Amino acid sequence: MNLVLLKGLRICTFVTVGIFAGCKEDTLEVEQKSAVQTKQPTAIARGKLDVEGGLVALSFSAEGVVNKIMVAEGQQVEKGQLLLQQDQRIFNADQRVAESELAVADTQLQGLRDKIPELQQKAQRLNLAAQAGAMQMQLSDEAQVVLQQAQTEISIAQAERNLAKSKLSQIQSRGALLNLHAPFAATVVKINAHSGEFLANGQSALVLLPKKPIIVRAELNESYLQSVKVGMQAKVQIDHDSDRTDLATARVTRISPVFIQSQLQQNSQQSPGRVVECILEFNTAPLTRVGQNVIVSFYDQP
């Protein structure tokens, strides 16, 4: 019976040792995962989602009354697409007058040019006759004077034609300013004008969001400048009042060489601190929108 009891104790001992060993391995794995999850960031900064160049406000280069609006807010537009148009009635009238003046100048110039061959033949014929003694030299000289006068008139008509063409070109260039085109592919964020409204030169007509990847503009406190480097990975979280939602990870692409005043400082009671803008690009496109406030946690390793 003692032998049986001894064997039982040995079995219990082996089982107990095995259980403790298994528990130790499981504990070690949990501790390792916990260490990764609780890894402290090198730096933390507030930021805002944006695109390179930011939102772009477009305006007409010349004052005028808005006549047509070809797009709507939220609409996707392509580069070169017509967005807004100013009233073109005065332009159309000026263009018709300029085109008419150019047509008259062309007609006058062509009429003078058509006379030249006949005048040249007459001058040459009279010159030959005068040299042969069949006619007075004075008649030949007069024919040459008439030819020279005609050539002078052509030069004047050519100058007037060039002036009329230049005037038309200037009017057409001014007409191009009445049309507002998209300078790049974008989304129409806001339209600041309505049909019939007068817009001054440079007054914002609409706002575009360029079709570019979303980036993070983080405000890096000067105390972190030596810790954050280009190429570092970062965790980006939406800055809610109650909690934080993870977005895609990002990497630092550039750090500004100049200080600016903080625009995202949480404590409004304090004067804005000195910060440096840090730009991050997402590793994958985030499911969010431009303008969202975020918290950026920088890490030495991915």
List the helices and strands and how they pair.
Layout: H1 2-37, E1 43-51, E2 56-59, E3 64-69, E4 76-77, E5 82-86, H2 89-131, H3 137-176, E6 179-181, E7 186-191, E8 198-199, E9 204-210, E10 214-221, E11 233-239, E12 244-246, E13 250-261, E14 274-282, E15 293-299
Antiparallel strand pairs: 1-10, 1-15, 2-9, 3-5, 3-8, 4-7, 5-6, 7-9, 10-14, 11-12, 11-13, 11-15, 13-14
Helix pairs in contact: 2-3
Question: Mind explaining what this structure looks like?
Answer:
The longest helix is centred in the middle third of the chain and has 43 residues, at 89-131. The chain is elongated. The protein has 302 residues and is α+β, with helices and mostly antiparallel strands. It is built from 3 helices and 15 strands.
Which segments are poorly predicted (pLDDT under 50) over 5 or more consecutive residues? 1-37
Numbering strands along the chain, what is their spatial order in the largest sheet? 1-10-14-13-11-15
Strand content: 25-35%
Share in helix: 25-40%
Approximate shape: elongated
The CATH superfamily of the largest domain bears the name Efflux pump adaptor protein, beta barrel domain
Assign the CATH architecture of the largest domain: Beta Barrel
Please give the number of β-strands.
15
The average pLDDT value, as a whole number, equals: 85
* Distinct helical segment count: 3
* Element string (H = helix, E = strand): HEEEEEHHEEEEEEEEEE
Q: Main beta sheet, described?
A: 6 strands, antiparallel, barrel
Rg of Cα set: 41 Å
Domain Multidrug resistance protein MdtA-like barrel-sandwich hybrid: 63-207
GO cellular component, one term: efflux pump complex
Pfam families: BSH_RND (PF25917)
Keywords: Coiled coil
